[in-house]
Every structure is written in structure tokens, then in C-alpha cells.
Structure to design on (183 residues):
């Protein structure tokens, strides 16, 4: 059976549907496609590790005014990314209302009909706004069960018309907050 598996063909067919993993679920699949199977992963029942503390990085207190503080924050970000792959930012000045609106927009985007999401589906790395499944879909040994909406906001923000309609309000609030600080 392994000899009959055409991973490249199945990846291409999945990608050309432009519906992502959420689209597969919405379509009623009952079995995870083979392109998402991680063959070399040994599933064990590890004992719970000690409490893991998520790295927290404070960007308040003159990060952008002081070169020393900025370099310190950059070093903390680098260390957190290298060791954990993620971190939490505090004292960034973005109000809870703005963050919740952004989360609602992203959640709403993924809950939309696949036909709406397809208009944003792309593998073009130069696009400032794109939706896809696994940036490394064609090069990885197995795909991850996730979809991603990417909106590149720096150095230049995308035009409002380029953003998904459902995400525009949260992005607008964020832009207003960020750009009102600069003046």
C-alpha cells in the first residue's frame, strides 16, 4: 500500500481545493487525509513535566526611546523564540477591546464559507494578506492540521480593501491605536 501513495499528488490536489483543513471538516470528512499523518512520531504517555512558564516580555518603559532597553528586549525575544518558539508580550499599550476585536475577526474569518476564504488563498510569499494551510505544505514530510490567515502589517500596512471584510474593524482599531501613538 505504501508504494501506491502519491504524496505530491495528494498535496497538490488538497492545495488546489483552497479550502484548508477547516474546509475538509466542513465538507464532512471522516478520516484525516494521509498527507497529515506524521509517520515517525512515536506516541508515548509521558509523565507531566514540571510547570512550564511561558516567556513574558515587557515592551513598556521606553523600549523605542532607549537603545539599551531596545537591545535588551530584542535579546529576550530571540532567546524566547529559540528556546520555546513563542512568548507573551505585556505592556504593549494595545487595549483589550482592540485585541478582542482582532481575535473575533480572525475567528470569524475561519468560520466563513470556504468560497469567501478562497479569494484570499495563496502561496505567494510577497502578498501582504493571504490564507493557506502550512507555509511548508510542499516541502514538509507531513502537513500540520492548521490553517493560517497572514496579514503583514510592517513596514507598510495593507490597504483596507485588501483585508477580509470580517477583519477590517479590528485592524482599523489597531491602526488607530498604533498610529495615534506616533504623533
Amino acid at each position: 500500500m505504501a508504494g501506491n501513495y502519491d504524496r505530491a499528488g495528494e498535496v497538490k490536489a488538497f492545495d488546489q481545493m483552497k479550502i484548508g483543513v477547516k474546509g475538509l471538516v466542513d465538507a464532512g470528512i471522516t478520516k484525516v487525509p494521509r498527507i497529515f499523518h506524521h509517520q515517525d512520531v512515536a506516541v508515548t504517555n509521558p509523565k507531566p513535566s514540571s510547570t512550564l512558564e511561558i516567556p513574558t516580555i515587557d515592551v513598556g518603559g521606553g523600549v523605542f526611546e532607549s537603545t539599551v532597553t531596545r537591545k535588551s528586549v530584542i535579546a529576550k525575544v530571540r532567546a524566547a523564540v529559540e528556546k520555546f518558539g513563542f512568548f507573551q508580550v505585556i505592556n504593549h499599550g494595545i487595549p483589550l477591546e482592540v485585541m478582542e476585536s482582532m481575535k473575533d475577526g480572525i475567528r470569524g474569518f475561519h468560520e466563513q464559507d470556504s468560497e469567501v476564504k478562497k479569494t484570499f488563498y495563496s502561496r505567494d510569499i510577497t502578498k501582504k494578506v493571504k490564507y493557506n494551510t502550512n507555509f511548508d505544505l510542499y516541502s514538509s514530510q507531513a502537513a500540520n492540521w492548521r490553517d493560517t490567515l497572514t496579514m503583514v502589517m510592517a513596514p507598510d500596512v495593507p490597504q483596507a480593501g485588501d483585508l477580509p471584510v470580517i477583519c477590517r474593524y479590528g485592524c482599523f482599531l489597531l491602526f488607530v491605536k498604533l498610529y495615534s501613538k506616533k504623533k
